[in-house]
Design brief:
The complex is a heterodimer of chains A (275) and B (352). By secondary structure, chain A is mainly α. Chain A is built from 13 helices and no strands. In chain B, helix 3 (110-123) crosses helix 4. Chain B is built from 9 helices and 20 strands. Chain B folds into 2 domains: 6-237, P-loop containing nucleotide triphosphate hydrolases (Rossmann fold), CATH 3.40.50.300; 240-351, OB fold (Dihydrolipoamide Acetyltransferase, E2P). The chains are: A mainly alpha (275), B alpha+beta (352).
């Protein structure tokens, strides 16, 4: 494997580079700086020590990680199916899968409410037969986050699956591996970089989820009040707490980018797959 | 029910071109399917391996139908070992787990599968490479791992798809020798698919020539050389190939005769090739500057009206090609004694 040649940096015109740098600093850097600038560092202990903050953090982690796990378990078969050459209804299935990406999350929350709410399409039967009410529970928060975040996993993995040429898979078949084994033992290891990337994106999206959650799951401290909800609520009254919690989310996100993102990028630059 | 022991294929399939091939390979027999790129070789391999269903025809292995109009056995249930041109090793596994892959797929327990894999690697002088990621192996080593992987499943048919096309000249020769040695005595049909006539002639008992999706001729290397049925076969396989040993400027052939050559090829075992057009025939001892000249007897003559292929007898069994006019002038007939000459520069030498 020959190392990839890097395009010389000088091929980018100086003006373009200047716009790029200015844009990223002004648009992304400056707001972060503002956040850090106004954060009352002396209050960190108080805010983080507060029961409500810790509940929100715990709930955020539990819900986002569960939503990610559900997205992987359900998203992998979906991505595999969508990556197949063609079958009737594939376009429709893809459209439905992509919809949560473009739908305003509040609308998603409402949709979930009328599907799984007590008077909802399915919810009324869940209520009548099993005495299960989803809305305003932690399950609703997880469902809302999964609804919004799972497409990131599905589309990332589907793209990676489509890029496979199938030669290693054919070799595995001649060796006696049936389709499920070929997929789990040959295809998945070969696209593991994309699996990580998809999972990271999904988790990040779930962690930041606000609109669908507050619509479908409500804003109950300790039950459905995740960090973004707690921050929004605090911002109405106790600004220092909102700032500290925001910085907490920034830190968590940066850790994810460095740990997962770095590994994914490293894998991307050394070709993953089969010779 | 067809009880032929070995491969019996009558394949009509299409993928770009239309493939229509009838081919039998008996158990223990080695057959080479030779043809230029785009002749349909890969399509044929895929139809045997169960990667491409037939349109019509059948693929039968040891009397068991793998594919015909009524049934299609998927790849995973076929036991057709394929050494792919691009190897297709699994990069996330080490050499041992690559070899063990097929056994694991067949339900063999991990420890046992690995033990069997280690045996194969040992047999192929790769014992010290067992735990290496396959990406760190040399081209030759990777190929041996791929062959071990294909053989570990105890296939009923072995297909070698362009096994040396990706290797450099020196490794090619070593690999061919190594393949011949390690596949000798393997009691299953072996099919070599190649575009390289030298590879076909040195490996196979029988050669089938594939052009534009059809087998245009089938026979031993000697038969194809003596009576090529069309121009393409004559060009591709009509060349004289002789095994020998090169020492300095001369190659000693297997029957004891020797030829003077002008080649940079390293000393040692070689295959020399001489184009039939590169041999000159004379009634009497020639007074030429050609470095090689000897007298022999005409064994047989094949004349299609445009060119005459003359099979020559000992000390060096070669085929020469002359024009019908030359045949008349020299009064060639089976049994005629003639002189043969050949310039050293007309003889190509390849490491074997």
């Amino acid at each position: 494997m020959s190392p990839r040649r890097r395009a010389p940096v000088a091929t980018i015109p100086t003006g373009v580079a200047a716009i790029a740098i200015a844009a990223s600093l002004l648009l992304f850097g400056l707001p972060l700086l503002g956040l850090v600038w106004r954060t009352p560092w002396s209050d960190i202990g108080t805010v983080l020590g507060d029961e409500a903050s810790r509940d929100a953090l715990r709930l955020s982690l539990v819900c986002s990680l569960t939503a990610t796990a559900v997205s992987i378990v359900l998203g992998l078969p979906l991505a595999w199916l969508l990556a197949q050459r063609r079958f009737p209804g594939r376009s429709a299935l893809r459209a439905i899968t992509t919809l949560p990406l473009v739908l305003p999350p509040v609308v998603g929350g409402l949709a979930l409410f009328f599907a799984f709410g007590r008077r909802g399409l399915v919810g009324q039967w869940l209520d009548r037969w099993f005495d299960i009410q989803l809305p305003f529970t932690v399950w609703a928060a997880i469902l809302a986050e999964t609804f919004v975040a799972m497409p990131f996993f599905v589309l990332t993995v589907e793209g990676a699956l489509r890029n496979r040429d199938g030669r290693a898979e054919a070799a595995a078949a001649t060796l006696g591996a049936r389709p499920l084994r070929v997929f789990t033992r040959v295809t998945l290891p070969a696209i593991r970089g994309s699996l990580y990337a998809g999972a990271a994106l999904t988790w990040a999206r779930a962690l930041g989820e606000f609109g669908a959650t507050i619509t479908f799951a409500g804003n109950f401290p300790g039950r459905t009040q995740t960090l973004p909800l707690a921050i929004y609520l605090a911002f109405q009254g106790n600004q220092p707490a909102a700032l500290v919690l925001s910085v907490l989310m920034v830190v968590v996100s940066v850790v994810v980018i460095v740990v997962v993102g770095g590994r994914v990028l490293a894998r991307r630059s050394s070709p993953v797959g089969v010779a | 029910m067809n009880q032929f022991a070995g491969l019996d294929a009558d394949v009509q399939a299409r993928r770009g071109l239309v493939l229509d091939v009838q081919l039998r390979v008996a158990a223990g027999e080695r057959v080479a399917l030779v043809g230029p790129n785009g002749a349909g070789k890969s399509t044929f391999v895929d139809s045997l391996a169960g990667l491409l269903p037939l349109d019509t025809g059948h693929v039968t292995l040891d009397g068991v139908v793998l594919d015909d109009r009524s049934r299609f056995t998927p790849s995973a249930q076929r036991a057709v070992g394929v050494l792919f041109q691009d190897l297709r090793l699994f990069n996330h596994l080490d050499a041992r787990d690559n070899v063990a892959f097929g056994l694991r797929a067949r339900g063999v327990r991990k420890a046992h599968a690995r033990a069997i894999a280690d045996d194969w690697l040992d047999r192929f002088s790769l014992a010290n490479r067992a735990r290496q990621p396959v990406t760190l192996l040399s081209g030759g080593e990777a190929q041996r791992v791929a062959l071990a992987r294909a053989l570990a499943i105890e296939p009923r048919l072995l297909v070698l798809d362009e096994p040396t096309a990706a290797l450099d000249v020196q490794t090619k020769a070593t690999t061919r020798r190594w393949l011949r040695e390690h596949l000798a005595g393997l009691a299953i049909p072996q099919l070599l698919v190649t575009h390289d006539p030298i590879e076909a002639a040195t490996f196979a008992d029988r050669i089938a020539v594939l052009v534009d999706g059809r087998v245009v001729q089938e026979g031993t290397a000697d038969e194809l050389r003596r009576v090529p049925r069309d121009r393409y076969v004559a060009d591709l396989l009509g060349g004289n190939l002789l095994a020998g040993r090169k020492i300095g400027g001369s190659v000693t052939l297997e029957r004891g005769a020797s030829l003077l050559v002008a080649s940079e090829c390293a000393d040692g075992p070689v295959v020399v090739s001489v184009a039939p057009q590169g041999l000159s025939l004379h009634r009497d001892r020639p007074a030429t500057s050609a470095r090689n000249a000897w007298s022999t007897v005409v064994r047989s003559i094949a004349d299609d009206g445009h060119r005459v292929r003359v099979a020559l007898g000992l000390p060096i069994e070669l085929v020469a090609e002359v024009t019908p006019a030359a045949r008349y002038e020299l009064a060639l007939a089976p049994g005629t004694t003639i002189w043969v000459s050949c310039k050293a520069t007309e003889i190509a030498v390849h490491p074997a």
